Amino acid sequence: MRIFDPHIHMTSRTTDDYQRMADAGVRAVVEPAFWLGQPRTNPGSFTDYFDSIIGWEPFRASQFGIRHHATIALNPKEANDPRCRPVLDLLPRYLAKDGVVAVGEIGYDSMTPAEDEAFSAQLALALDHDLPALVHTPHRDKARGTQRSIDVIKESGIDPGRVALDHLNEVTVDAARDAGVWIGFSIYPDTKMSPDRMVEILRKHGTERVLVNSAADWGKSDPLLTVRTAEAMLAGGFSAEDVDQLLWQNPVAFYSQSGRLDLSDVDGAEATFAGNSILRGGS
After folding, report:
1. Alpha helix (H) ranges present in the chain?
2. pTM for the whole thing?
3. Is the peptide bond before 105 cis (omega within 30 degrees of 0)?
């Protein structure tokens, strides 16, 4: 089994997680820029964070034979903080980087006017940079937020086939499917979506243009819930080919639209440096 997790926040995970993921068949990940839990107070903290997820984190992943890419954006929650708004001016610098395969996470948290402006501005950046867009649907009032997201996507002029609408559930999947976007689901221990519920959605909608991720971060989450979803699919009568389409071929197809997805050496041996997992300075 080979797995590509299209949305996971590895900067908040440990090397033990990387090892477990590699052992379970995870060979590639995409890490979207997101909120860190504590408010950032100036654009410089975003600069350091962006540098980390396009530089340090891909190197860290490579120690376990995992290919790491990123998406870059001002996230919806922090779009409401005037101290963070200048981050929008930094984004073109990062959206030109080789390892950046989409603009994201963008979308809504509380559906404020400030979020409206940031969402529209970043969809415009996706068009300018010929990149796909990864859209976060809000955790509160999800049905209204999903429809509002769909409306903004339509107004932007971006091809809906270049947009993934994430964190969907049974209430919002039909509207997203009808809009022609990729439909994304985050599998969590207690909230959002479970493996068994995901299998039922797949029975109804099939595996085409579906992305399943763990979205694992600093909260209660599990980077192996993509694997648990694969197991639930097989137990529910889906084939190994169905699992491969959902958990490998689909994220490859979506992020390949960036022209920057590099999956070379995904089955290569992990690198070590004089017995250490991290290259250290000095002579």
Report:
1. 15-24, 43-51, 57-62, 87-95, 113-128, 142-156, 173-179, 195-205, 225-235, 240-244, 250-255
2. 0.92
3. yes
Q: Of 91, 76, 84, which Cα lies nearest the Cα of 41?
A: 84
**Domains in the chain, ordered, with CATH?**
3-258 (3.20.20.140)
CB 226 within 8 A of CB 202: no
DSSP 8-state symbol, 99: T
What would the two tokens of residue 14 be?
């440990």
Q: For residue range 213-247, what is the model confidence (pLDDT) as tens digits?
A: 998 777 778 899 999 999 999 999 999 999 999 99
Q: How many residues does the chain have?
A: 283
Euclidean distance between CA atoms 239 and 67, whole angstroms:
26
Rounded CA separation 214/165 (Å):
15
Query: Which tokens hold the place of 178?
Result: 């009808």
